Amino acid sequence: xxxxxxxxxxxxxxxxxxxxxxxxxxxxxxxxxxxxxxxxxxxxxxxxxxxxxxxxxxxxxxxxxxxxxxxxxxxxxxxxxxxxxxxxxxxxxxxxxxxxxxxxxxxxxxxxxxxxxxxxxxxxxxxxxxxxxxxxxxxxxxxxxxxxxxxxxxxxxxxxxxxxxxxx
Length: 168
Description:
Elements: E1 5-12, E2 18-26, H1 32-51, E3 57-65, E4 68-75, H2 78-86, H3 92-105, E5 110-118, E6 126-129, H4 133-137, E7 139-142, H5 150-156
Helix pairs in contact: 1-3
């Protein structure tokens, strides 16, 4: 287990950033035959992405809630995210097809969702925690004197000030 960093830390990232939430809702807990395959498909996809440094996946964090897991992923671009999702040779396409087949057999047993955010600026702080989240996906740096408050970090762009295609 990673040890907490007792310093006040933030993240640093230059370039595009996409935050992607993907998860499942388990609606019929008594039917693991219907929801377990969906849950079990994700580790293989994450391992596949981790093996490919050009995949565009910067990092991720898994959260487990009352209705099921949510995975927060950080990507270099929507193009790379969509390229992986649509790649017929990658694990995502067969997993998605298998989910759809199971869903037709038992409508409503398990749900899936995703949300995609293209981020222009991001602000973060981590105190007494291991490096995690956006700092783990990008770069963890100490909070400086000109970035002591959240509004300073966000306004000054000291964390994840991203350039746009049409300029800074």
